[in-house]
User: Fold this.
Amino acid sequence: MLYSLPAMSDLREKAAQLIVPRLDGNRLLAEDYIKQITALVDAGIGGFILFGGKIPDTLDSIRRLQDRAKTPLLITSDIERGLGQQIVGGTRFPSQWAVAEAIDRNNPNDIVLLHDMLTAVREECVAADIHAVFSPVADVNVNPDNPIICTRSFGEEPEKVSWFVAEYVKGLQRGFSADHRPPATDHFLLACAKHFPGHGDTSVDSHTSLPVINADKERLERVELPPFKAAIDAGVAMIMIGHLKVPALEPEPIPATFSKRIVTNLLKEQMGFIGLVVTDALDMGALKSICGEGEAGVRCLEAGCDILLHPSEPLKMMDAIVKAVEVGRLSYERVDEAYKKVMGIKKKWSVASGRWPEIHTQQSEDVAYKIAGKAIKFRKGMGDSLLAPTSSSENIVCLVIDDDGDGSVARPFLDAVKGKIPGLRVVSSPLEIKEGETIVLPIFSRVSAWKGSSGLSEGSSEKIKNVISRGGRVVLISFGSPYILNSFDADVMINAFDPADFMQSAVVERLFTE
Assistant:
């Protein structure tokens, strides 16, 4: 028997506010695309997750969308490494693993440096009219073969990860708390700890298929869950649920995003989280083999999620929610509860922010470079005479190992070395190396969605082994996963954790000054 329902328009309005689809910043000047987006705004969509774009075009477009919206739009973005990770013109900062290597928690000056970075991230995002960032990553990367977390994590130690997660939350939110305490400033940002209950112990990318976390409950409570508890204690506004199968917490063969035991019973009731619960992207491969997006959205709401992120067909998801309520499967009270939480957050700021006209200042660049320099770790060879500025260019050769492209990513590194050694010889094959030459191998392998690995391809590994076997002096530098160098033994081995331009320049400075 169907129970009495509110007016259809009221239900659709509330369902729409829970849906946050993708916004392609690089397409906002295209007429056909902006028509699609304005149609979503007119339908009452709750907000967007922004990918790409540049200043000031993206900012202008967002403000036009806000002017059109009946209810303020929640503008979010997948920003883990500063505004420059998504928007051209913003400052790019180091990966979380690099930050954790750079910052000594017992050094007050380092803690000031960390918060200088977080202040810059917060201020640039607010200036860009972004209200929420899906950061920090709270996963403990205990699996070296993890294809999607890796350097996005603060590392392998739960206590260390927990400390950095809490500091990120406090620095990004600047006094805002999920318990609705008044923030210290109007210029706050919402942080989001992810991917609950922990994506660090998997060798599968949830963008492509559903990972299974086989740890027992005791291990989960000791390793995976503490960083999320630290985030909650720090007042984090949002927590993202990962598309993960966790048998120790949910005996049914369903992902955590569908699990009331995990979302409601564990996260909300046992761990005391009262903020917004966000799904991971609903168009990911981890869910596609289970059900369609509309059904996925309904199941996530049933489990206790509040925001449905990144559906490919948001209007169809809205229809699915309305239908589920109409037939009595999903309670109107659950939709209303999520709606009130979203609206409670939206009332905390003015969407016409943009209080900081300066984005990507020299000061923010200096902070990024300083952290980069402190993050570099010599696994072997520190203190040796590495590369001398007076070295003959005939004795040093560089071979770029780039698993993801044509080697152009290494341009900042090569330019910096050539600034020290103008005649540097760059080769494309080990066969071009001459006897007696020192060979420098900058290694690039991105941690990115859909790729399936954070390590090296077999071809790249064989190329490096070939170089080492030739007997010359070899310098290996990993600008990605710290586990890459585990497979090799060279004269000098350096972990740099991040391919950013400033990290490449910082490594060159260390090479010529150690």
